[in-house]
Amino acid sequence: MMEIKELVKISLVSGLLNLETIQFGQFLISRPSFSAFILGLITGHPLECFLAGVLIEAIYLDFTPIGGVVPPNGVFACAMFAYLFNSSKSFSICFFMAIISGFLYAEIDKRLRWKRGKWNENYTKEIDSGNFTSGIWIAKSLAIEFMSVFVFSIVLGLILIKPSIFFLTNSFLKQWADTAFLAMPFVAVSSLYFRLGGQVRKND
Amino acid sequence: MKYQNLGFVYAIEPALKRVFSGEKLKEAFLRHIEIFNTQPYMASFVIGNVIGMEEKNVEPQKIVEIKQSLACAYAAIGDRIFWARLRISVYLLTLILCFFALLSEKIENNYAIFLSLIIPTILYATFSIYIRFVGIKKGYSCAGSGVCGLDFIDWNKIVRISSRINYLLMLSILVPAAFYFLRYRSRFLSDKIFAGEIAFVAFCVAIQRYFKEKKKPLTYSLASCLVAAMFFAILKEFFLR
User: Fold this and answer.
1) I need a labelling partner for B24 at 20 to 30 A (CA). Which of A198, B32, B115, B135 fits?
2) Which of residues 154 through 183 in chain B touch A, CB cutoff 8 A?
3) DSSP one-letter string for A8-53
4) What pLDDT does residue A168 have?
5) For chain A, which residues score pLDDT lower than 50?
6) Are B10 and A138 an interchain contact pair (Cβ–Cβ within 8 Å)?
7) CA dihedral B81, A23, A80, B118 (to 10 degrees)
């Protein structure tokens, strides 16, 4: 029961944080390191969540939201990490599950955007009838985005909790996750390093 | 999909209602409900220009054409500056501040992390708000004439400087991080396992470089690392212990 309460709290906060990613503000408060820290304060593991957020951000920075590209969702990944880590206490296993969750939510986000694209027809009809209500459509979009993160993080949290505990109790699987985790900071940082080097060379 | 069209209409709605009424207002809404996609902070330049043009009663077709070409131009600039560089600067600055804040024993851990997160965020937010504010002002005074605010700052200079700063910040993180990792791991592991771990990490970095050369996303490297980790875990379990 306590876990469900915690999950609802995490989902609520991540739903609000997610609005800052695109719809409201975009001041980078919802970047993974920051949102993981906030979510960590809720679960009582701010340092661990912050460290996971830093790594998640290093990996997700590789995906630039240019054009119609939907990058993996950092807030959603952090929400999953905060919840799973609170329950299973295994950093590497929760980290990989969080990374995968971020990619999964990007797929949901793509579908949501595609669905919202269909609103244009209705809005055009409203304009034709002399009704100018863009604010209402935007409020609707905010509410759907919030609800989507809220509901999906509860659902995925409940689904992932069992595999994360299974991984934890199986020594080989845990060792596998620990070993793979060892390379993650280096893969993420080297990707960033070469990218920045490339940017400097291009400008010269 | 028409991307940010609804947000754009929402932003110019008060101005349109001030300038037009009746059938003309309807027409103005309909011409701006078309596709709009640019970098969000730079959208203010386009918004300013469009409002200026609408107030000056510029020919509707011309407004739409200028709007679309400005959206593309500002997207190219904004993506290069904000998404490809300043976002990374914020990340790197957070890491450096956090490193020093956590080392300092005078500051409590949570407070240290919060400070290292909030300082770069405030700097970034201030700059982005400034760009949005100036964008509206510059765009409005240009109103589709001349370069429409594109010459407001030397954007290329910002790109050049931020690239170099990012690279320096990255180096200043990379060197001590590698040093600490090697020192920390070598203390607790046997020589064989430690050497194996270094080989595994080097292999993963090589995989990442290989897929980057092939222009594949990082997901390919991550998946390959997971597979390689499984083999290394087996090796560690049965041969290296």
Assistant:
1) B135
2) 159-160, 163-164, 166-167, 170, 173-174, 177, 181
3) HHHHHHHHHHHHHHTTS--SSTTSHHHHHHHHHHHHT-HHHHHHHH
4) 80
5) none
6) yes
7) 60
Q: How many Å apart are CA A143 and CA A163, to the nearest integer?
A: 31
> CA–CA separation, B80 vs B82, rounded Å?
6
CB contact under 8 A, A203 and B1: no
Find out whether B82 and B41 touch, Cβ atoms under 8 Å: yes
| CA B22/CA B7 separation, integer angstroms | 22
pLDDT of the residue at A166:
83
Chain A contacts in chain B segment 138-157 (CB below 8 A): none
The whole-angstrom separation of Cα A176 and Cα A93 is 9
Q: Where are the domains of chain B?
A: 5-188, 189-241
d(CA A18, CA A21): 5
Angle between helices B191-213 and B155-188 (to 10 degrees): 160
**Smallest CA–CA distance from B167 into chain A, residue:** A196
ipTM of the complex model: 0.93
Element (H, E) at B23: helix B22-32
Which chain A residue has its CA at the smallest distance from B233's CA? Answer: A176
Residues of chain A in contact with residue B205, where contact means CB-CB under 8 angstroms, are 183, 186-187, 190
User: Among residues 19-38 of chain B, which lie with CB inside 8 Å of chain A?
Assistant: 25-26, 29-30, 33, 37
Give residue B241's pLDDT: 61
Nearest CA in chain A to B81: A199
Q: Could you say which residues of chain B have pLDDT below 50?
A: none
B198 — contact with chain A (CB < 8 Å)? no
Q: Quickly count: other Cβ atoms within 10 Å of residue A169's Cβ.
A: 10
Judge: B91–A190 Cβ closer than 8 Å, yes or no. Answer: no
Contact A74, A107 (CB under 8 A): no
Write down the pLDDT at residue A171. Answer: 84
> Which residues on chain B are in Cβ contact (under 8 Å) with A113?
1
Angle at B73 between CA B70 and CA B79, to 5 degrees: 125
